[in-house]
Amino acid sequence: MKKIIIYFLLTAYSIFASEVKDTKLINSISIGFGQNKLNKNVFKLGLQKDFTSKIYENRNGYLEGFYDLSLNKWDYKESQIYGLAFSPVFEYYFKTKIKDLSPFIHAGIGVTYISKTSADNKQYSTHFQFEDRIGLGVLYKKHKLSFDYFHYSNGSIKEPNDGIDIILINYMYKF
């Protein structure tokens, strides 16, 4: 576990240090709790770095995003799986008449390394997994709350490819 945490921190530093325009290595930190289809607990701890600029803007809102580096834990009956994930996430914020309140939708596709290729009756076959996500939420000042759906799968690189679906409530604090 210590090796995973050290790797997580070093990877976070190397990814976020490469952004030259913004001197902050990390713009926010997040924590998420949820369940998978087997009604088992899922935990997510993440570090984020915002994209350097807005991608698109119109009269209804704007598109921007962030890079998400996360450490995940999936509980099973007799074991746990840890995952280290990296994903760019694109967010569309809707403009509102309420000051400092911005509802949003977001989506991203990234990569994950998982510690085990099987747990209970689930077979993931490879340590490498894709992380697909979609969600909706609200940003109020520096606080972001979202309701997200995640799907992890090896993309049929190797069979069996059971995959896992997760519903997550995520809280993010922006620095």
CATH architecture: Beta Barrel
Largest sheet: 8 strands, antiparallel, barrel
The neighbouring-strand order within the major sheet is: 1-2-4-5-6-9-10-11
Q: What is the tally of helical segments?
A: 1
Structural class given helices, strands, pairing?
mainly beta
Q: Whole-Å distance between the termini? A: 27 Å
N to C succession of SSEs = HEEEEEEEEEEE
Percentage of residues in DSSP E strands? over 45%
Helix-strand layout with pairing:
Blueprint: H1 2-17, E1 28-36, E2 41-50, E3 56-58, E4 61-75, E5 80-94, E6 101-114, E7 118-119, E8 122-123, E9 128-140, E10 143-153, E11 164-174
Antiparallel strand pairs: 1-2, 1-11, 2-4, 3-4, 4-5, 5-6, 6-9, 7-8, 9-10, 10-11
Structure, described:
With 175 residues, the chain is mainly beta. The chain has one domain (2-174): Porin (Beta Barrel). The chain has 1 helix and 11 strands. It has an 8-stranded antiparallel beta barrel. A hairpin with a 2-residue loop joins strand 9 and strand 10 (143-153). The protein starts with a helix and ends with a strand. The mean pLDDT is 89.
Short description:
With 175 residues, the protein is mainly beta.
Can you give keywords for this protein?
175 residues, 9% helix, mainly beta, 11 strands, eight-stranded antiparallel barrel, two-stranded antiparallel sheet
